[in-house]
């Protein structure tokens, strides 16, 4: 069931490897089916390269198994909490991507100094307060922090990216890492100039309303 969504989730997981956002299985991907409300999520601790679409776990919004060969991600309850509290979110991607995670371990948000970050994430990347892995507390800290952004940092941990589709969540995760790298490198040779709110809004609007083939 939900073959297309399972393929999209697996494809995004493989792209996390392609774009070097994860090491081994240090991340996870999920997507929500708009019709049934079911969630397709990567299984826990399994190599994405060896997975087939049918290995992606299908659960309902309460976490009950709908169709599964494996245990779902250890972060499943956090994904479910985000879906429950943010109806506009249809996909969630968790990574420990290197440059963004540097800011997470410094407990610093990533200021918006590039149009890329404004376009794809919606501005400064906020920092969600620390929550232990698999405690069920990560979802609430993300919902508390993320607002209308497409990503937030998890203190001392990594990144949570979201989107209205699996593709959008993947783009947010990839471009956030790219912008974090640029900001980090720029800071090592000078003082990055931050974008004013008015420019962030303009850059965000272009991507919401003009960019791409779907508008
Ligand atoms: O952050 C952590 C553990 O530190 C987890 O997100 C894992 O890195 C991925 O777990 P699974 O999704 O494979 O269960």
Automatic annotation (TrEMBL):
InterPro entries: Aldolase_class_II_sugar_metab, Aldolase_II/adducin_N, Aldolase_II/adducin_N_sf
Pfam families named in the record: Aldolase_II
UniProt KW Zinc keyword: yes
Keywords: Metal-binding, Zinc
GO biological process: pentose catabolic process
Cofactors named for this entry: Zn(2+)
UniProt-listed PANTHER family: FUCULOSE PHOSPHATE ALDOLASE, L-RIBULOSE-5-PHOSPHATE 4-EPIMERASE SGBE
Protein's UniProt name: L-ribulose-5-phosphate 4-epimerase
Organism: Geosporobacter ferrireducens
Organism lineage: Bacteria, Bacillati, Bacillota, Clostridia, Peptostreptococcales
């Amino acid at each position: 069931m939900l073959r297309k969504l399972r393929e999209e989730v697996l494809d995004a997981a493989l792209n996390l490897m392609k774009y070097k956002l994860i090491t081994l299985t240090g991340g996870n991907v999920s997507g929500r089916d708009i019709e049934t409300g079911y969630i397709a999520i990567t299984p826990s601790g399994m190599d994405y390269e060896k997975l087939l679409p049918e290995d992606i776990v299908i659960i309902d919004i309460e976490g009950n198994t709908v169709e599964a060969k494996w245990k779902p991600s250890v972060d499943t309850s956090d994904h479910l909490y985000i879906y429950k509290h943010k109806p506009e979110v249809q996909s969630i991607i968790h990574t420990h991507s290197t440059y963004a995670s540097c800011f997470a371990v410094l407990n610093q948000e990533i200021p918006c100094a590039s149009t890329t970050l404004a376009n794809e994430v919606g501005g400064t990347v906020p920092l969600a307060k620390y929550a232990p892995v698999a405690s069920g507390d990560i979802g609430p800290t993300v919902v508390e922090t993320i607002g209308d952004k497409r990503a937030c940092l998890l203190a001392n941990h990594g990144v949570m990216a979201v989107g209205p589709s699996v593709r959008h969540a993947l783009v947010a995760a990839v471009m956030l890492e790219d912008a974090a790298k640029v900001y980090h490198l720029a800071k090592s040779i000078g003082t990055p100039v931050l974008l004013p709110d008015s420019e962030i809004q303009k850059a965000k609007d272009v991507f919401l309303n003009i960019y791409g083939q779907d508008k």
